[in-house]
Automatic annotation (TrEMBL):
This is RIPR3 protein. It comes from the Eukaryota. Residues 1-294 form the FAM65 N-terminal domain. Belongs to the RIPOR family. It holds the Pfam family PL48. It comes from Certhia brachydactyla. InterPro entries: FAM65_N, RIPOR3.
């Protein structure tokens, strides 16, 4: 069986190579170069696409975009109904103002529809490259078990190149998809600690998303209110990174670690502001309140 499989390998691997070449994303799409993720180590280029994570983000993103589309479609329906009424019995200036609002909402809806179609196009191309890579990987593993001949070595080399090309294309698409993720506006709402928070206590909160960082300091006032040197920060969503939150208590020149937590951003792709209450300590004696608007 292995002999016949080896003879079959040369023809099949060449066909697969041609198929992969025709399907190359970079030959059909104008994409930005892949961003350097944390999975890329300094001094060595390591392609590390994560299909399962990309699928989760894509589904959350598409759901959020459809929510925005439905909300603006409802607004358009409402304005269109008012437009018909005011055409019959209203001032001309008010009628034109309403007409202007309708055109503005219609333009925004078209932008959203294009945005959704672009995201779907990118993810479809990503899935194709993922399937091609899986197929080439399976064939490479099968050929590696066959007797070592010149034909099998050539086939393995060809398949290795195909796997690398598909992997690179997947990373290019991930970089292009990140451009369409929008922005997260994160607002500081303060610490909750009941008896743990006392007037005069000072804290530092450090929020990180990939390479993006936000460091802010706050103080508990005598009336139990809190003052923070910053209240809002804009983060650009990332396909692979989670929010990392670190809280420390400042006591003179010393700092005491209160806790470190991570927070997934998948649930933030929605039209409504998301209130987040994170347990900073293991027992939940100190919590951090944030609000995220996408």
């Amino acid at each position: 069986r292995s002999c016949s499989f080896t003879g079959f390998s040369t023809v099949q691997s060449r066909k697969l190579a041609k198929s992969l070449s025709r399907s190359s994303v970079r030959s059909r799409m104008s994409l930005k170069p892949p961003k350097v993720y944390n999975s890329l180590q300094k001094g060595a280029l390591i392609w590390d696409p994560k299909p399962l994570q990309v699928k989760k983000i894509f589904e959350a993103l598409k759901k959020g975009l459809n929510e925005y589309l439905e909300a603006h479609q409802a607004e358009l329906d409402y304005l269109s109904g008012r437009h018909k009424d005011t055409k019959r019995n209203s001032r001309l200036a008010f009628y034109y103002d309403l007409d202007k609002q309708i055109r503005s909402v219609e333009r925004y809806i078209r932008k959203l529809e294009f945005h959704i179609s672009k995201v779907e196009e990118l993810y479809e191309a990503y899935c194709i490259q993922c399937r091609l890579r899986d197929g080439a990987t399976n064939m490479k593993q099968a050929f590696s078990l066959s007797p070592a001949t010149k034909a099998s070595r050539e086939s393995l080399l060809e398949l290795y190149k195909n796997v690398q090309e598909c992997t690179e294309d997947m990373c290019f698409i991930e970089g292009a998809l990140e451009v369409h993720l929008g922005e997260f506006h994160v607002k500081m709402k303060g610490l909750v600690g009941f008896a743990r928070l006392c007037p005069g206590d000072q804290y530092e909160v450090f929020v990180r998303l990939g390479r993006q960082k936000w460091r802010l300091k706050g103080k508990i006032e005598t009336d139990d209110s809190q003052t923070w040197d910053e209240e809002e920060k804009i983060f650009i969503p990332n396909l692979h990174e989670k929010f990392e939150i670190k809280v420390t208590e400042l006591r003179g020149l010393a700092t005491i670690l209160v806790g470190v937590v991570t927070c997934d951003s998948i649930n933030f792709f929605t039209t409504k502001p998301q209130a987040i209450i994170v347990d900073i300590t293991e027992l939940g004696t100190i919590k951090l309140r944030l609000e995220v608007l996408w």
